[in-house]
Amino acid sequence: MYAILLLLIEVLIASYLHDAIIRPYGGDFLVVILLYCVIKAFANAPVFRTAMSVLIFSYLVEISQYFHLTRLLGLQNSRMADWLLGHSFSLTDMLAYTLGIGLVLVVEKVRINLKMSLNN
Hints:
The protein is mostly helical. It has one domain. It is 80% helix and 0% strand. The protein contains 6 helices and no strands. α1 packs antiparallel against α2, α2 (22-42) packs across α6 (91-119) and α3 (47-66) runs antiparallel to α6. The protein starts with a helix and ends with a helix.
């Protein structure tokens, strides 16, 4: 449910927002949360391990932009490759990913503590 809502928000941001804050940073902040929700919807994996895996994956995608991976693979003219892998490296994108995963960890901690207190 959350993944679908986040995907819809991501599509709306990409399609209609052309500002200097929400589209570049909000989208990056939300995409790691979206990836986390998708994984957790299909796998009963530990919270921290899942969150760190998503963060590392996001970092790797960002680093691939630094090395121009789409160009190295001959995909520089592919809109899909550009959409999935991006095209320009940014440390602020990595900060947005980190903050997004930080929010995931905080929300999961609160959710688990709340669940535990309701069971007592």
